[in-house]
Amino acid sequence: MNPLLSSKDTLLDRIGMALAGKLTAKTSGYEPYTPSDPETLARTLRPGDILLIEGNHKVSAAIKYLTQSTWSHAAFFAGDEIPLTLDQATLPVIDRPQLIEVNLGQGCVAVPLSKYSTYNTRICRPVGLTPEDRNAVLSFMISRLGLKYDMKNILDMLRFFMPTPPVPVRWRRRMLAFGSGDPTRAICSTLIAEAFEQIRYPILPEITRAPGRASATSQYSRAEILHIRHHSLYTPRDFDLSPYFAVVKPTLEYGFDYKRLQWEGRDGKPLIE
Q1: Fewer Cβ close by (within 10 Å): the C or N end of the chain?
Q2: Quick one: 245 exposed, middle or buried, by C-beta within 10 A (0-12, 13-18, 19+)?
Q3: 217 falls in which pLDDT band (50, 70, 90)?
Q4: H helical segments located in the chain
Q5: Which InterPro entries does the UniProt entry name for this protein (predicted)?
């Protein structure tokens, strides 16, 4: 029996969990181009960073298609701020739960960096966070650990069984946010976006320009007004595209020198200069 189900669960709960299980099953043939090194990630990541993941679950294919992106999942790095059990505290750093993520069928959980050692990943870092705001974001995410999601809204999951639904590009983001059920929140990056929304940190705000008063140096001054989009519309790709999150590449953080690379010749032997 599924440990996430109890005798009080309804038929819809059971159907929802069955659908979630199928959607989170791994697909065959996935091979990362540059798999992550968990130890290097552990040295590079800072609390508040977002780790984007190129997933290989069945639901990942639909998310990649709908968002026109290679990134299908996002996790929040909280590092040592996550409370540990005595057993977890004795584990190597890469095996301790340091990432907070939301998974379909599980809810909000803490997982180790080693979980993504065989996946393509990308670090996106918010720039210029004050210590107070960083702590606020961390506290928000940690407080959501253990949050479960209602699996009754099965329509929110059924759409992901069509990896390439025939919808125009402009409607695909809306399709991700279709319905109002919790499974939508469990799949998208909405919890992370909601955390940054609390401190008014922009991800991809809508910008409109309004004419200001005429001044001595220009006929019109233009003011940018930032409108924070609702967190339910954000996807993993948005953190990559955001002009307010820096892309951090671990291989470049610790003195990369291309002259020290070992190249292989056509005969399969190392090239020696």
Answers
A1: C
A2: buried
A3: very low
A4: 11-23, 38-44, 58-67, 86-89, 131-143, 155-158, 169-176, 182-187, 190-198, 236-241, 250-253
A5: Papain-like_cys_pep_sf
Across the range 190-194, mean pLDDT stands at 89
CA 155 to centroid of chain Cα atoms: 23
Query: pTM value?
Result: 0.77
Question: Which among 60, 72, 17 is positioned nearest to 160, based on CA atoms?
Answer: 60
Give the integer Cα–Cα distance in Å for 165 and 133. 39
Q: Residue 152 has what pLDDT? A: 58
Neighbour tally for 67: CB within 10 Å: 19
Q: Which two tokens stand for residue 47?
A: 């609390």
Assess contact for 103 and 25: CB atoms under 8 A.
Answer: no
Stretch 1-14: mean pLDDT: 60
| Token pair belonging to 124 | 């996106």
- The Cα diameter of the chain in Å comes to 75
182 φ, ψ (degrees, to nearest 5): -65, -30
> Among 117, 140, 114, 123, which residue's Cα sits nearest to residue 49?
123
d(CA 34, CA 203): 26
Which strand (E) or helix (H) includes residue 223? strand 222-227
Does the CA dihedral 140-48-231-157 come out positive or negative? negative
**26/7 Cα distance (integer angstroms):** 28
Cα 83 to the center of its chain, rounded Å = 21
**Cβ atoms of residues 12 and 151 within 8 Å:** yes
Token pair 């955001």 is found at 242
What confidence tier does 50 reach under pLDDT thresholds 50, 70, 90?
A: very high
**Residue 248 DSSP code:** E
Q: How many CB atoms lie within 10 A of CB 90?
A: 10
Q: Are strands 121-126 and 206-211 parallel, antiparallel or unpaired?
A: unpaired
